[in-house]
Amino acid sequence: MLNKIWSRHSKLLRHLLFWGICTTILTFLFAVGLPSYWLALKLVLMLLPVHIGYYYTVSAIIIPKFLYRREFAALAVSFILVCIFFTCCYRLIEIFFADPYLFGQMKPLNPTFKWKKIEGSIPQQFFNGQYMVHALEQTNAIVFGGLLIKFIGMWYDRKQMALNSELNFLRAQIHPHFLFNTLNNLYSLTLNNSPASPGVVLDLSQILRYMLYECNTDYVPLKKDIEIIRHYIGLEQLRYGDRLDLNLNIKGDIHGQQIAPLLMIPLIENAFKHGASEMIEEAWINIVIEVEPSSIKLKVSNSKPLEQHQGNRSHFGKIGLENVKKRLALIYPESHIFSVHDQEDMFAVILHIELFPSLLPSKRKRSNPSHPLLALSATDGNL
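Above: the chain sequence. Below: its structure as tokens.
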């Protein structure tokens, strides 16, 4: 219930919360030397309209009209004029309302009470430099505090927009890259008039539906992401048949977990494209997905022809892996470990995502072993 109310009226509630906090702080400050907090609160409420009017004039009119358009001279002149206007308003409210009321409340408590601030005529009180400077300080303190919060919020929103734009770009980059590779598989099957072609088209449609319609969120159910991985592996198994020794091992409960979409499948695709497809025989791929309540771990290893180590680019230079690396840095900046092991006869990647960043292992434990098989076998007997 509270979440629905906040989502519908979050902006209004944030502003009400801000002015409530300001009123509370000013009340405690005004209460110093006064007989009660209630008296201080009434004085604050008399002057609060000046703070509200000043702040929204600057934040809703002057800043959008001049700062966003980079008209800095007009911004400075307008700000000075508005500052002078509301400082004068503050001082007039003091002279006609707040000060007489406070004097009237204090006089019965101390019949000998005298207050120099209310002595003299109205023009003398108004043009008193000491009290005018005090009014200037009082009016600008709240406004500057509110503007600081506003600018911090604007900076954060812009940062989030930039991150979302980059994530959307990287996510969109996966789609044609993955589709191109999968269509190559379909093309190979159709050349041979394979009866499995209709099944390939069906699996491909499931993958494309997921990519186009279900991946437009920050996180997706892990179960769904693994389902798409199974579809993709099914496509590749049809292509390679008995030429490929493939092992898929999923450990733990995949229900109820969430993960950023399309992080794991490029790593698995990479094993097929740059491992099995470039070997004539004895190709193998091992895939292990370990799911725990606080983490998700993916280990993918594949065989590699010997000549690839000498002549071709490293796996890590490929589009898919670079894309995953960038997305991990944006989505899980301090809660992931992504290691790549490129050896003469095999290639392996290990992705470890902590769902709770505080549980991330120390970076001092991320040393690479002499051979990746040692690291893989130390944690899983299948690799």
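Residues 2-127 form one domain.
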